[in-house]
């Protein structure tokens, strides 16, 4: 399994053809207290860069973009009742959705954990 | 993830963002700073939710030095100001603060403000930060030459709000606890002259302290050294005032709204209504009798997703009939709430309305305001 990051602070954990998507610890820190997440429905087809989910903090709404193209297989059902999981465990239990990758070569354009840490350090 | 659009005042784009006396003080305490009303201001410290709840349980220190503090002096200043707003000032007791509205000739709201007569020929006024220069220009143009208007830019303004606020402040500044809600007075702290009013904009008991800029850091240090008081950012100030049902100028109030539309008819003093001698009186008094076409109401939003400023109120056909002017997640309510202007037919509490935000419908119910009861100290009965 490998984990990749986007410059828009999404992460994707890839296992075979399946990817799990969330937002980074840095992103949740910037957003602050998260009060609502709208995850995509299963079956939805996403192209890389599409608005895939909505995350709302006390102050603001943000879109979460699809890091790669694919078909959504599951939104995280736990976030409906407990959106604060995104604050407490953003890169684990606070995942947003899973998808089946349609073009795994798109992963090559993303950052690995080390590169993302360097990217965030410069912000 | 898209950059979150913070709810800052981007109507005003100054050439240079200014700093206030406590700028370094906020940064040293880990505040996240944003531009607001032309100044660098702290939006949050540890987090909006925690700061909001701390203020409702204990006490918060809010730096509101961006607001405009004005001292208006001269013979007949009270009568002169009455020409610009619907308050009764000339026959008002000294050192008693009141809420009023600067009105244009059509009865539209140019700003909301607090004013306190300090002497027969002197009125202290606090206006909104984003509008203060416009307010000053409006007043200078209309007030008689013998009235002097001083924008007190050498003063900071600190609000301490919450159920434990006054006891904590009184430890530093004896006598503050003798004030009741909307009463004000002069105090001394370590040789610095303070003007303190028992008022605020959170719905909680508390005080607002006008302090000379050179003493602001020392006073802020002394205040947060009290165990009850933590520094609180603008983010929680906004969620607290929203829960308290208090309108925010530039969002819930603007020149297209009138006092009656905004549900602020209490600010129309009886004597001024009877004389009908304030700007826009004909229109405003007619609205007071017959009701305004649109009314500001509170909304309890179903579900968990906040519906924010810019969303529309729609009818069964999906046509826009009103607008959401403030909205967000209410930490003390535990649910999303909003303020909106809706047609009079939809303004009664309990009315269900449909909102539209980014193409998605949301259901809401008109609710009485405040959403969280006010806890002002009106004296021992």
Briefly characterize the structure.
The complex is a heterodimer of chains A (123) and B (381). By secondary structure, chain A is α+β, with helices and mostly antiparallel strands.
Layout of secondary structure:
The complex is a heterodimer of chains A (123) and B (381).
Chain A: E1 2-5, E2 10-15, E3 18-23, H1 25-31, E4 34-38, E5 45-46, E6 51-57, E7 61-65, E8 70-75, H2 78-81, H3 85-88, E9 97-101, H4 113-121
Antiparallel strand pairs in A: 1-2, 2-3, 3-9, 4-6, 5-8, 6-7, 8-9
Chain B: H1 23-28, E1 32-36, E2 39-44, H2 48-57, E3 59-63, E4 68-73, H3 77-82, E5 98-103, E6 109-119, E7 122-127, H4 132-142, E8 148-151, E9 155-161, H5 165-172, E10 184-189, E11 192-197, E12 206-212, H6 213-224, E13 229-231, H7 234-243, H8 270-275, H9 281-290, E14 294-301, E15 312-314, E16 320-330, E17 335-343, E18 352-357, E19 360-367
Helix pairs in contact in B: 2-7
Q: What would your notes on this structure say?
A:
The complex is a heterodimer of chains A (123) and B (381). In chain A, 20% of the residues lie in helices and 37% in strands. Chain A is α+β, with helices and mostly antiparallel strands and 123 residues long. Chain A has one domain: OB fold (Dihydrolipoamide Acetyltransferase, E2P) (Beta Barrel), CATH 2.40.50. In chain A, the strands form 2 sheets. A 6-stranded antiparallel sheet of chain A has the order 1-2-3-9-8-5. In chain A, strand 2 and strand 3 (18-23) form a beta hairpin. The longest helix of chain A is centred in the C-terminal third of the chain and has 9 residues, at 113-121. Chain A is globular, with a radius of gyration of 13 Å. The termini of chain A are far apart. Helix content of chain B is 21%, strand content 32%. In chain B, the strands form 4 sheets. A 6-stranded mixed sheet of chain B has the order 10-11-12-9-3-13, sandwiched between helices. Chain B has a 6-stranded antiparallel beta barrel with strand order 14-17-16-15-18-19. In chain B, strand 11 (192-197) and strand 12 form a beta hairpin. Chain B is globular. Residues 5-10 of chain B have low confidence and may be disordered. The interface between A and B is medium-sized, with 26 and 25 residues.
